[in-house]
Design brief:
Order of helices and strands: HEEEEEEHHHEEE
Bound molecules: zinc ion
Distance between the termini: 24 Å
Oligomer: single chain
Helix content: 40-55%
Shape: elongated
């Protein structure tokens, strides 16, 4: 049982990073910025706007490049579609959620209060769903999946495979 939790935790964890060239507005240097870890960003934007968590500086003058990274993310990922596997999972999530509610409602005379049933099954369903979505980025057509998390575009997670530069956009 413990190994299942460990496997879940490992799969859910994503690696932060940035390996795309940016142009520094201060010194005009174009290059891969210095990546100095990441920090939580509570100002998550919606729609077609991006949220960057990585701390990025110009490798030439040290100027902070978070805004540039934000613009680049929109440019790179706006046209990337969410993979069909992810869309199917969302569909199944909604159907299973409805099934839990309906099942809980009709089963209440047998099992008891439906709220308790939903309380038990919804967290399981959510974890299962997140696990299935995360397993999409555990694979890559190149055979050597190394997906690095670059930021959020609206509510979608943007990844890039360091092995083959393939871009992946996921929604959970
Ligand atoms: Zn610079
Ligand atoms: Zn790849």
């Amino acid at each position: 049982m413990l190994s299942i939790f460990k496997k879940y935790k490992n799969l859910m964890r994503h690696q932060h990073g940035w390996k795309i060239e940016l142009k520094c507005p201060q010194c005009s240097h174009i290059g891969i910025p210095h990546y100095n870890g990441w920090k939580p960003n509570n100002r998550i934007k919606f729609g077609k706007r991006s949220t960057i968590f990585a701390c990025l500086d110009c490798s030439h003058c040290g100027n902070e490049l978070r805004d540039e990274a934000g613009k680049k993310l929109v440019e790179l990922f706006s046209e990337i579609a969410i993979p069909p596997r992810n869309t199917h999972l969302i569909m199944w999530f909604v159907v299973a959620g409805m099934a839990i509610l309906v099942g809980a409602y009709f089963g209440k005379s047998v099992i008891g209060d439906w709220a308790y049933i939903a309380f038990i099954f919804f967290p399981i369903l959510i974890r299962l769903f997140n696990y299935r979505v995360a397993s999409i980025r555990a694979q890559c057509a190149c055979g050597n999946p190394k997906y690095v998390f670059m930021g959020l575009l609206g509510r979608t997670y943007c990844y890039r495979c360091s092995s083959c530069a393939r871009l992946l956009r996921l929604r959970d």
